[in-house]
Amino acid sequence: MKFVSYLFFRLLIGLFALIPFPLLYFISDLLRIFFKYVLRYRVHVINRNLAYCFPDKTEKERKIIASAFYKNFIDILLESIKGLATKPEKLIPRYKFRNAEVMDDVFNSSSNIIIYSQHYNNWEWAPLCLGLQMKHHLVGVVKFLSNPYINKYMISGRSGNNVSVIPTYNTAKYFKQLHKVERPVGIVFIADQKPSGSEKNIELDFLGSKARFHQGAGNYVANSGLATYTFDIRRVKRGYYEAEVKELLPPGHKLSSPQVTEIYKQNLEKLILESPHSWLWSHKRFKQYLEY
Length: 292
What we know:
Layout: H1 2-16, H2 21-38, H3 43-53, H4 59-84, H5 88-91, E1 95-97, H6 104-108, E2 113-117, H7 126-129, E3 137-142, H8 148-158, E4 163-167, H9 171-176, E5 185-190, E6 201-206, E7 209-214, H10 216-224, E8 227-237, E9 240-249, H11 257-274
């Protein structure tokens, strides 16, 4: 059954290779209506999350954010599939790195870095495009998929073009061998997922409420003392994005893991308040506080 799913997945990618972007967004508009009003995809989760984080907004204001979220979410879903069927060089005009030179001094000193990112706007094109626009070799820390065939294909699609990936369960081993790398690397953590356990969690004030965050990435940042950056992805217009790199911590910092996570959280809050619909509200981010 998993192999059949893989074949269907590959067929879907082949079809998307033939779809031009204007048609892609026409399909996205149709699917948005289907997901929101027919399938009602995670409507309850989205509404509860928005009510929890924005209690001061009116119901009408939250509905506007939810509607805009569906448009953004379906665009990203289709763009992600389209990206797997497109050569990265052709996507770069649509996914530009605004200021990669910020990291050049660290690279020239042969130093590794850590990069934070989040589920904000199109995060899926980042491994396809950003490695071609920066000097550090990008290493994404990812959770492997349960379907081994699709997982192998996705790893292949995300690797190359100055990018590679490692599974989450190998992160500690990779850091222990970091001194052996031939060229400086930038290790990427997407750290805004809902924590699955309690041993690496930390509770923080988030958008005026409470939320738990993974502490794993913060531990690696704190223990390594490596320069730490964030990649903030903003939509320029439909189908076009711009990545801005910002330094969160300089090399040799002495902050603790909770302090590091707090800094990451503050940056995430700023992004969400800047464009609320651009974050992934459909995941059960606040399950520990809400009944879905």
